[in-house]
Description:
This protein is an alpha/beta fold. Helix content is about 50%, strand content about 10%.
Amino acid sequence: MTISAIILAAGEARSPVIRQAIEHTRDQQFPASSLQGLRNARFYLTRGAASRLTARRLEDFTKRSKTPEPVLDEIAIDASTELRRPLRALSEADIRSHPFGDELSKTKNVHLPEMGARAHERIVAKIERGLAPTTNTTFLHTEPHHDDVMLGYLSYIYHLVRDPTNGHHFANLTSGFTSVSNAYLLSILRKAELQLGLPGFHSLFSSNYFDPGNASRRMEDVYLFLDGSAERSPEKKDEAESRRLVRNIVDVYRLSNLEAIRSKAKELEIYLTKQYPGAKDPADVQTLKGMLREWEVELLWAYFGIEAKDVHPLRLGFYRGDIFSEEPEIRRDVIPILELLKKIKPDVVSVAFDPEGSGPDTHYKALQAVAEALKMYEKEREGVPVRVWGYRNVWYRFKPSEVNIMVPVSLNTLSLLHAAFMNCFGSQSSASFPSYEHDGPFSELAQKIQVEQYAMIKTCLGDDFFLKNKHPRLRAARGMIFLKEMALPEFYDRVRELRKVTEEEG
């Protein structure tokens, strides 16, 4: 037998392009769908890559002896969004119109007419959890990259920080230097070179302003930048950025006079102008780029009154700037997280909860490191009631049936997300590694996702649930954040499952 065509789908595990090429009718929008007309054409997929194909999922579904609630909810929600009909209005025929719903009617002991109403009740309970006040809680927000938390659930933090009994710490697990372009570092360096010639910098230097160990002076850099933002003063913002870069150069190269700093700045400028984009930088330049990301995240959390001492740059060693990151190691990557857990003693730890192979390689490996650290922490402090919040942002999405916290997002906080991102994350205003879904800053994609999630829930619950609700935050909602809260045993189980999602099995 001659095989006319072979497609190997091993990249983006759940790519809609792959799914559409196989399941969609032949269409010019999906060039690979033309293979459907070729004799003996084949798509070779891993089990993970095939996990969103309807026929594959249906076959797995029929093998279940019992259907858990999240799966029942998923079927009802799919029927609701496809038919554009609220959950409570779904009939038995509507449920049967879903391939899995029809299978339920044949083989499962499920009362179909009640599925929509029960899914409605569970969604409302999830929203009520997202609205409930949180007090006397210490949070450790972990993120593989410096903008992951803000892109995932900044609007929830906006409410959590309002209660002064809550404490917030942010752990940046990697230095993130690969997302800082040579051009961006060069632009900041040139601003600093101009500032170095001004009398004000001379007096700052003589007063030990740039001493890397002076935490209060570090915060002065941050406050100067935010003052410049409030006053719409590019000059103040440029001065603040220059101060921080000079401070970082002093720290990295252990320089003690302005002439040496000027010389090093010129040396760096020559290097950056000659280096081609994407080339691996030497360790010192990697460190400088990573420190720029750390500066950006200090700016962000200062919006909420959080000081730099509560922002912890861990710079885990598995992140080296190679195409594929190394596997996390206990001493190098897990122990630093464990030490931070012991110091902070958090009630809630948040993690980027992306499956292996679904986005940046760093996300899943950071998740592994956090999970191992929590296991060690739990052994040392037996019975510690730590809860884990799994979040996702621009690389992968939760289904409504997978989560147990839904947080309504207003236009105000959607605007804050984009404004803060563009103001604080200068290195990311034009992403080096954009998403296939959106050609623009990640903040716009995060907004888009949260708006789409709200639209889905609005369809499921009906317009009046939001527009005529007694709660002002629900009337104001135009976006929705999905979070998965877990006790530690469930979290460990889920981490193992996330690895299985993309395993290459038979």
